[in-house]
Amino acid sequence: MRRPNRAEPTNKAEPKPLISTRALVIVLVAVGAAALTFAAPGLALPIGVGVGVVTLLAQIVKD
Predict the structure, then answer these.
(1) Is residue 6 exposed (0-12), middle (13-18) or buried (19+ Cβ within 10 Å)?
(2) Contact assessment for residue 48 and residue 54, using Cβ atoms and an 8 Å cutoff
(3) Model pLDDT, residue 9
(4) Which pLDDT score is estimated for 47?
(5) Is 26 within 8 Å of 55 (Cβ atoms)?
(6) What's the domain range around 56?
(7) What is the total count of domains within the chain?
C-alpha cells in the first residue's frame, strides 16, 4: 500500500501577523507618550489621559 506524498502541505493559508494593527497603534502611542513624559514631566497627567482615551477608542472600534 502506497502512502500519499506529503512534500507539500494541503493547507496553503496565509500566515497570521505577529501583532494586530490595533495593538501596534496602542504600543506606538504608549511609546510616544513615554517619550513626551520624559521630555516634559509637567505634562504627564494630560498625556496619560490622552493615552487612556486612545486605548478606549481602539477598544470601541474593535467591538
Answers:
(1) exposed
(2) no
(3) 58
(4) 77
(5) yes
(6) 21-62
(7) 1
Residue 29 lies in a domain: yes
Is residue 16 in a domain?
Answer: no
The residue assigned the cell 500566515 is: 15
Amino acid type, 61: V
The span from the CA of 12 to the CA of 42, in Å, is 53
In a domain, 35, yes or no: yes
Place of cell 478606549: 56
Q: Give the model's pLDDT for residue 57.
A: 85
Q: Dump pLDDT digits (tens) for 4-63.
A: 665 555 567 888 888 888 888 888 888 888 888 888 888 778 877 888 888 888 788 875
Question: Is 47 inside any structural domain?
Answer: yes
